[in-house]
Specification:
Alpha-Beta Plaits; alpha+beta; 4-stranded antiparallel beta sheet; about 525 residues; 15 helices; 3 domains; 8 strands
Length: about 525
């Protein structure tokens, strides 16, 4: 520990003897550095903040109805393509940057420099900053303003151009599909007209015509069998029913073949008498309806056949019994005629259905691939029609989206902070650089004295001589003491020189503050 303290004290004594060397080195380093810092050109920065609302009110309203152009994705693409070569070429042509160009190589270097110096920095999801630095404040402002204009034009016009191209493409595809659809409809109609007998009908397209004809024959066979059975039953009932019935005079009953009485329908006279009895239940003899009904009964009795006898009927000489036609027999006869007519009709329908089935079977045997060919044709037609209708729907969605882009702000762009011509340079940071130069000069001066002390061959103490291995008899102290005033003058001279260095640094700092209008 004492050794290190001794070495440090020795180094400081030697460095103090070389103090003027360190001060000169510090002055040289600071002078050169401060001149270099002063000569560094100013860099002016212009910036603008842009707000982009990709979730405007119109976007969710049109979701699912119009073609979604994905505004958020589109914004990201615009951010990446803003510094593309075509945009930078447009930027150079619209600003004064092309005035300093002398050839293609200068243009390439300028494009490379613009790519690295123009910054597009997103701050939030919808807010980002465009900034640029240049030696000229006006050029920096013009570059940011031009980039802002290009971005807005790309955001509003690029999507419209893409939508217009998509709409034209859809219209061309629709026209092409329309021609194909018409040709397919014509081929389908001609094929169906040629083989309409065997092709499936429109009411039940899943059932082939031949299968339908077979099912129709089976159904007619069942109906015909039921009709024949009903007709045979009516024949047996008709054969068992008598044609005439024996009726007792004054009675409304007849005796059937089995000896049992059979109710006969009432005559008009009997019905009139029953009506008169009903009227007398609640009316008097002088009531107009009663009088009219008695007149009707008298007229019926005076007319021939009023008793209900039929011409040609055999009458009993005593007027007790008579024979009348059997009404049930007549009814059975009429129903039998209707049943025979239905049987004939169903037989005719079945014969026609059988002939139609045999014809379809013949056509299918002669042309077995006809149904498959029609199914393939119909399948192609269905696919074309489905694609055509889908393209029509896409075209309508594109028209709605294009109308939303042209007539409304689907993506809202708002310039929050427009670019301004900067008055204060953004770079370099001269105050920091001047301070670093001062620190570097002091460090260089101190380092030079320390290095110089390493080459010093003098001996500060008797112990340094003893380390050489030589006998040391003793040491002689300095004759006399250095006057205190001399020491003070030495320290003051060195301090004044160092203060002058610091004063120059302070003057430069004040100059920088005045230039940057901070004071």
């Amino acid at each position: 520990m004492d050794t290190m303290r001794t070495m440090l004290a020795r180094t400081l004594r030697i460095a103090w003897r070389r103090r003027w060397l360190g001060l000169v080195v510090a002055w040289l380093v600071c002078g050169v550095g401060w001149v270099a810092v002063t000569l560094v050109p100013n860099q002016f920065e212009s910036s603008a903040r842009l707000y982009v609302d990709a979730d405007a009110v119109l976007t969710p309203l049109l979701r699912g109805l119009a073609a979604d152009s994905a505004p958020t994705t589109q914004l990201e693409i615009l951010q990446r393509t803003l510094l593309s070569r075509p945009n930078l070429e447009k930027l150079i042509s619209k600003t004064d940057l092309d005035l300093s160009l002398s050839g293609p190589s200068d243009r390439e270097r300028l494009i490379t420099r613009l790519t690295s110096t123009i910054k597009v920095t997103p701050q939030t999801r919808n807010l980002f900053t465009i900034s640029y630095r240049d030696r000229s404040a006006k050029v920096a402002h013009d570059v940011v303003q031009t980039l802002l204009t290009i971005f807005i034009e790309s955001a509003t016009g690029g999507n419209r151009s893409d939508m217009e191209n998509a709409r034209r493409f859809l219209e061309r595809q629709i026209a092409s599909y329309e021609q194909q659809l018409r040709a397919a409809e014509k081929r389908r109609a001609e094929f169906r007209a040629r083989y309409i007998e065997i092709l499936p009908n429109d009411t039940n397209p899943n059932v082939p015509a031949l299968e339908g004809a077979r099912q129709q024959v089976i159904a007619l066979d069942g109906r015909l069998q039921d009709a024949v059975t009903a007709r045979d039953a009516l024949k047996q009932a008709l054969e068992a029913a008598p044609t005439m019935l024996v009726v007792e005079t004054g009675a409304n009953q007849a005796i059937g073949p089995n000896g049992l009485p059979i109710a006969l329908p009432k005559t008009r006279l009997q019905e009139a008498e029953d009506r008169l009895r009903d009227l007398l239940l609640h009316d008097t003899e002088n009531h107009p309806d009663v009088i009219a009904q008695r007149r009707l009964i008298a007229a019926l009795k005076a007319s021939p056949g009023a008793t209900g006898a039929v011409a040609g009927d055999a009458r009993d000489p005593n007027g007790v019994r008579r024979s009348v036609p059997n009404p049930i027999y007549e009814q059975l006869k009429v129903k039998l005629i209707e049943a025979e007519t239905q049987v004939v009709s169903l037989q005719r329908q079945r014969d026609e259905a059988v002939r139609w089935r045999e014809r379809l079977e013949k056509i299918q045997r002669e042309q077995p691939g006809l149904i498959a060919e029609y199914q393939n044709m119909d399948r192609d037609y269905v696919v074309l029609r489905r694609n055509y209708e889908e393209l029509l729907g896409r075209l309508q969605a594109a028209n709605i989206a294009q109308a939303a882009d042209t007539q409304a702000d689907k993506v809202k762009l708002q310039v929050i902070d427009p670019p301004e011509i900067p008055r204060i340079p953004a770079a370099p940071n001269r105050m920091l650089l001047l301070t670093l130069v001062l620190a570097g000069g002091i460090a260089a001066g101190t380092g030079s004295t320390v290095i110089a002390s390493q080459f010093d061959r003098s001996f500060s103490t008797a112990d340094d001589l003893r380390e050489l291995g030589l006998p040391v008899l003793g040491g002689i102290s300095i004759l006399g003491l250095i006057p205190l005033r001399y020491r003070l003058m030495t320290v003051l001279r060195f301090g004044l020189a160092f203060a002058m260095l610091v004063g120059v640094y302070g003057g430069l700092m004040i100059y920088v503050l005045r230039v940057t209008a901070l004071i």
